[in-house]
Design a protein that fits this description.
Elements: H1 4-17, H2 23-35, H3 39-44, H4 52-66, H5 71-75, E1 77-80, E2 83-86, H6 99-109, E3 116-120, H7 126-134, E4 139-144, H8 147-159, E5 166-170, E6 182-187, H9 202-205, H10 210-213, H11 221-229, E7 234-243, H12 249-254, E8 261-268, E9 274-281, H13 285-289
Parallel strand pairs: 3-4, 3-6, 4-5, 6-7
Antiparallel strand pairs: 1-2, 7-9, 8-9
Helix pairs in contact: 1-2, 1-4, 2-4, 6-7
Length: 291
């Protein structure tokens, strides 16, 4: 049987032929997962010869990755905001830039005695679960159009022991709500234009759920709906936090009615890409009338 060094060399070549960036690093990540070891183990035990069962298992994983299936789906998990989340083909893979929403929501809600928020489009639950895990006095409603995605949200909420404070509902945007009010509404909506889907990396285009990627329109329709309908469900001085695409900031700013919203900001992610819109509604009807 081949040892770790030989196995990595062959695996890296396989991934290179599939046009995967950093094939050696990816091969090492995959092999470490297959062996249930860390990468330091691979270096320290480079002459270790894989058992037949280990080789068979690794090769099966390698073929999946060579087909451009994301490693996170192969592993079934992804780290986000310091927590591990279950990931399947039914939800978006949590991404570091989305942590911006979590950070700002926590900063707003931590000042309140009994904070309450709503997430539109829960997906894996990474946003809501992370906020609730950090703020033990908070509660939330999570809205999601996909029943399968909502099942993943529920599982992640159970794992991180916040399920009792997260009320989950099948909903097309705000459709399932009636008279509820929230201090903050958060969302990472489908903001990719339909015409841009084919240009995405195969890992995204072929394996992540299209309903979470695109509105099947110009990428702005769900964002616009969130901005128009959120005021009905926000407390006075409440906030709306929405993740947006890298080229959407100027158009999104124009969607906010100055008679309803104040302090509308576009905030950059760690790569200095405009990534999130943060907006606050006026505190009382008199404030709006005075504008």
């Amino acid at each position: 049987m081949a040892n770790i060094t030989e196995t990595l060399e062959k695996a890296a070549e396989t991934l290179r032929r599939s046009e995967i960036a950093e094939p050696r690093r990816e091969a090492a990540t995959l092999l470490a997962f297959a062996l249930d070891k860390d990468k330091i183990y691979l270096i320290a035990h480079s002459e270790y010869e894989l058992l037949a069962a280990e080789e068979t298992y690794f090769q099966a994983l390698l073929q999946r990755r060579a087909s451009r299936e994301p490693f996170q789906q192969i592993a079934g998990r992804q780290e986000f905001f310091g927590l591990d989340f279950i990931v399947t083909k039914d939800v978006l893979i949590p991404r570091p830039e989305t942590e911006l929403i979590v950070e700002h929501a926590i900063n707003i809600l931590r000042e309140l005695e009994s904070p309450r928020f709503c997430e539109v489009g829960t997906g894996s639950g990474c946003i809501s679960v992370s906020i609730l895990h950090e703020l033990k006095n908070a509660s939330a409603i999570g809205l999601e159009i996909s029943e399968k995605a909502l099942e993943i949200t529920s599982r992640n909420a159970e794992i991180h022991r916040v399920a009792e404070r997260l009320d989950l509902k099948i909903s097309d945007v705000f459709a399932a709500l009636t008279q509820e009010k929230f201090d903050v509404i958060v969302s990472n909506p489908p903001y990719i234009a339909r015409e841009e889907i084919d240009e995405l990396q195969p890992e995204v285009r072929d394996y992540e759920p299209h309903v979470a990627l695109t509105d099947e329109n110009d990428g702005f329709s769900i964002i616009e709906q969130l901005i128009e309908e959120a005021p009905r469900f926000l407390e006075s001085d409440g906030f709306l936090l929405i993740e947006i695409g890298f080229n959407q900031a100027a158009h999104v700013i124009e969607m906010f009615d100055a008679k309803i919203w104040r302090a509308v900001e576009i905030l950059p992610d760690l790569q200095n890409i405009p990534r999130m819109v943060r907006a606050q509604i006026y505190s009382a009807p008199g404030d709006v009338a005075a504008r």
